[in-house]
Task: structure prediction
Amino acid sequence: MVFYRRDAALEDAGRSLIASALRQFGPTGLEPDSIALTLVVPGLTDAIPRGFGHRGDCPIYPASVIKLFYLVAAQGWLEAGRLRPSAELDRALAAMIRESSNDATNHLVDLLTGTTSGPELSPAALARWLARRRAVNRYFARWKWPEFAAINATQKTWDEGPYGREHQSRFTVENNRNRLTTDATARLLGAINAGEAVSPAHSAAMRALLARDLDPAVWRDCPEAQVGGFLGEGLPDGARLWSKAGWTSETRQDAALIELPGGRSFTLVVFTEGRSLAQNERLLPFLAREAAEAVGTL
Result:
């Protein structure tokens, strides 16, 4: 069961989108099971959105898209009084989302979970540490959204790799790598867009951080802008974008709220796996361009 309603026209458009991508990028490594995609558009006559998913419920390593979930958790902690507002907190949240800073993210994971990195721990101490580190998982479990059942948000993000207790958490605990689905990510983005993530005020603050400047003069030579090589690059002139991308040597991911020049809007989340796709800077812009054209005709 998913949060969106199946729609024949959108289903056809989604299948055509995947088929077109496979024709275009199959020779460079794209296969049906190396990509997951969720496309969601507003409902025609009711509040239930229409959607299409290709492997949308498959748990996948999300790279820095996990930072979107840490952002929402931080706003939830602020709302509950578990974090105090401060200029330093604002600085870390902005760096985590706007620049995809791993240092900022890891600081926020410490604040959210009451854990710190450090030397290896004994089994008993590690068990206590892991229980605290799972605080973000417990938070989203309380939302009782079926899409969140398969996610895991327990790991920091690294430029090189984890050491000490972080290495224990990642490599000695079974199935403890960060994981998301494109369906779960799309639903969270939709909640932010609708003002339903934590509260309207907190949703507005998150949306402001996720806003991307689509002026090529801003993003062309700036990978941290998360537009070039990602969904934003494929959007038409006059579009607006709110997004969080992720990339490693083995993955290239993006999660976006998109508003087209004519006012039509949609959510598009794409996760890819494999070294060739991680290095492919044309696939995600292609998918955004094709999706924008399809949504414009629905």
Notes: The chain has twelve helices and six strands. Residues 8-295 form a domain with the Beta-lactamase fold (CATH 3.40.710.10). Residues 8-25 form the longest helix (18 residues).
